[in-house]
What does this fold into?
Amino acid sequence: MYSSRAAKSFVPNVSVLTAAARTFDLDEAFPGLDVHRVDAPVTTQFENVYTDLKQTDGTVRKVRTQVVRPCPVILGKHLVTPELSQARIAHLGPICNEIDVDILTAFQPNTLICLTPQGWLRRWDGAGRVTQSAGHWTKARAFLQAAQAVVLSIDDIDGDWDVANEWAKHARLMVVTIGPRGCVTYLNGAPETVPAPSVHEVEATGAGDIFAATFFLQMAAHGDALRASGVANCIAAHSVTRPRLEGLPTRADIARCTSG
It folds into this structure.
């Protein structure tokens, strides 16, 4: 939801393919967006709880615990409409391992295939308590090699830079966000740290999705990965200074972050 609504802050036409129950109000969740609903018995629901974790260098990092009530529908190639197949950017962002690898062949050759892998890394127990592991993403190489851009958080892979470095070998362009410190952008496997502006954090929910949407749109517009990383860092940093959906990019944010 955050990614699509953040994208709408930049461009006029944004479409969403999602599975949801008929009782779920898509107009409220995705106002002004073109939503393609796949009927489902339930709509996926998450509960996020944040706690502070003090690092060895004295800084504090927010750690999230999740509980999920997942939707059982899998989104694959057969659900991509002719209209969606011609999208300029296809952002594949599963939340509960619900996007099948065959969807990679659903789009036109000129579509920019972009990934946020977090949802492929998730598994959950009978009580819905979510765990994340790089090992859960069994189709990682196929997705990474097919995509033009990949964004993930270092928290998605439990801080394991060996995993990040390995995945970067298979990705054309990969960015690992590192919270208030900004991000590490891998160009042809070589990492470069791009700092973020210092801000007062109010709430971090949605910041990663906002970063990803901004980064993908900037890449589509300009093709400069380091510039796109800087703009996305700036937009995401300002998003955490406001609570929840108030953190979506504003015109002032966009003007401030793209003026350089």
